[in-house]
Each structure stands twice: as structure tokens, then as C-alpha cells.
Design a protein that fits this description.
There is one protein chain. The protein is an alpha/beta fold. The chain has two domains: 113 residues, ornithine cyclodeaminase, domain 1; 177 residues, NAD(P)-binding Rossmann-like Domain (Rossmann fold, 3-Layer(aba) Sandwich). The protein has ten helices and 14 strands. The longest helix has 17 residues. The chain is globular, with a radius of gyration of 18 Å. The N and C termini lie close together (10 Å). The mean pLDDT is 96.
Length: 298
């Protein structure tokens, strides 16, 4: 059994993580077969257990959510990943699960929207300044040159990233001119008026997997092509989708499965907004964990 720390996980890099996700979907992996994540209540928070089985391995991510940790100067969410041999169920590796999440989530987003990314240098607006916000910029930069990446945050003075205050004229200008908008926050209501966006933006929302929390307004989803990891999972967990359906802006039949986009079974339209809403699924961790282990000679 090997232990692969954050440095070993990060060494895979976003480009190879994107390639691993796309190759798995083209190779026949169906996200609809993934087991549901299992929440387990604890005195000071909860476990989230995220199991998955592939053709050569099985694995489970054990996530801890401790709401009081930020006040202690500790991360709210931490994780470890256990990777097993599929046939013997022998433990092959333990990976830093926090680093794995930070790598695989942007890789999934980029794999889902890659067919619609312009071939030129991208103008990117990112709402948020946390690990996922930074990770999505890195993943986009791994597949396209970036003209600029502007972070839209509540307090620009609190980050060293190139940022402007959300809700200001500068932030609105960044949204208007963006080819790609990434939402990576803990918001529970829409972050901006989608009427600010350009006619054909790519919008990625990864902030939550709760059915009553959203980062995007229904008006955007009503006029967009909406891609999700798995339709059944999205209508159960993706608040942006669930609330838009409740408000009559969208139906489950309108949703496009990411697998169909990556395999080319469903071509994306050239015009109009494209929204990718992610809630995070267990198969993604398994695919990237296997790629990490393979790269390290495991």
C-alpha cells in the first residue's frame, strides 16, 4: 500500500486529469451507474462517503465536513481517498483526498465544456478566490491560452489574486466581456444578473451539491444549453437545476449528460450560453486517483 500526498496528486497536472476524465467517458464509463454519496452525521459535522467501482479498481473518498473549523483556522472540508484493487479488494494506495478534489473538479468542468471553448486566448471571470476558483483557472490555462483571469470577490484586499469587488462596475465589465465565467462559491442565491453576460458565454458552476443552493439565476438556464454530470443526480442535488425546474425555466428533459458531450453523441450548439453544473461524483475521484497512481509507477 502506498501513500500519495498532496504533492504527488498535484504532480499529475490539470491537462492529464482532463485527459483521464475524457478517456474514461469515451471508454464506456457511465456516470449514471455511480452509487450515491452517503452522508453520516457526526457530533461536530459529518462524513460524506463517496464510493465507486471501475473496470480495474474500486475506491472510496472519505470526506469530513466540520462547519466550526474555519473559526479554528482549519479547513471546513478535508478528505482521504482509499484506492483498492477491483478483483482482490486489496488496498493499493491512500491519496490526499483534499488535493484530489481540488484537481478532479476543474478537470471535469473543462472536459465537459472543451468542445465549446474558443480556440483563441480566453477572457475568464471567476467568482470566488478559493482552491476551486484557482484550480479552474489553472485547468483552463492547460487547454487554452488565457488573455486574462479576473476574480470577482467580496473583499479584494483579502486576496493576492487579480480581483475586483463583486457587484461593482468593474466586476460587471468583467462579466460582460468574459468568454468563460466560473462560479466557485458557497453562495445560496444567484451571484449576479445573467443579463450582464455576453450572448454566447460558457458558464461553469461548481459551488454546491445542495438542492436549495444556487449560484446562477433561472433566466440564464432558461436560454442556455445545460450540461450536467448525470441527469438523475442533477435533479436530485444540483440546486441551480432543481430551482430552475421548480420555477418553470427548465425541465429534466432539457438537460444534456456530460458523457454525451464528451463522446460527441450530442453536439453542442455553436451559439447561445452553455452552462455546466457540477455537483461532484465519486467516479471522478476514482478515475483521477488511478491516473495519479499510474503516473507514480503504481
Amino acid at each position: 500500500m502506498r501513500f500519495l500526498d498532496a504533492e504527488a496528486v498535484e504532480a499529475l497536472g490539470p491537462a492529464r486529469a482532463v485527459a483521464a476524465i475524457a478517456a474514461a467517458l469515451r471508454g464506456g464509463l457511465d456516470p449514471a451507474d455511480d452509487p450515491r454519496r452517503v452522508p453520516v452525521g457526526l457530533t461536530r459535522g459529518e462524513f460524506l462517503l463517496m464510493p465507486s467501482e471501475g473496470s480495474t479498481a474500486a475506491g472510496v473518498k472519505v470526506v469530513t465536513v466540520a462547519p466550526q473549523n474555519p473559526a479554528r483556522g482549519l479547513p471546513r472540508i478535508q478528505a482521504a481517498y482509499l484506492l483498492f484493487d477491483r478483483e482482490t479488494l486489496a488496498l493499493r494506495a491512500v491519496l490526499d483526498g483534499t488535493a484530489l478534489t481540488a484537481l478532479r473538479t476543474p478537470a471535469v468542468s473543462v472536459a465537459a465544456v472543451l468542445p465549446r471553448l474558443p480556440g483563441r486566448a480566453l477572457r475568464v471571470a471567476v467568482v470566488g478566490a478559493g482552491p476551486q476558483a484557482v484550480g479552474h483557472v489553472a485547468a483552463l490555462a492547460a487547454v487554452r491560452p488565457l488573455e486574462r483571469a479576473t476574480h470577482l470577490v467580496r473583499g479584494p484586499a483579502r486576496t493576492r489574486l487579480h480581483s475586483v469587488a463583486l457587484g461593482t462596475a468593474a466586476a460587471d465589465d468583467a462579466l460582460r466581456s468574459a468568454d468563460v465565467v466560473v462560479c466557485a462559491t458557497s453562495a445560496r442565491s444567484p451571484l449576479f444578473d445573467s443579463g450582464l453576460l455576453a450572448p454566447d458565454p460558457v458558464v461553469i458552476a461548481v459551488g454546491s451539491h445542495e438542492p436549495d443552493a444556487r449560484e446562477l439565476d433561472s433566466a440564464l438556464l432558461a436560454r442556455a444549453t445545460v450540461v450536467v454530470e448525470d441527469v438523475a443526480t442533477a435533479v436530485r442535488e444540483a440546486g441551480d437545476v432543481v430551482l430552475a425546474i421548480d420555477e418553470g425555466a427548465l425541465t429534466a428533459d432539457d438537460l444534456v449528460a456530460m458523457r454525451d458531450v464528451v463522446t460527441g453523441e450530442v453536439p453542442l450548439p455553436d451559439r447561445g450560453p452553455l452552462v455546466f453544473k457540477s455537483v461532484g461524483m465519486s467516479w471522478q475521484d476514482l478515475v483521477v486517483a488511478e491516473a495519479v497512481l499510474e503516473q507514480t509507477g503504481g
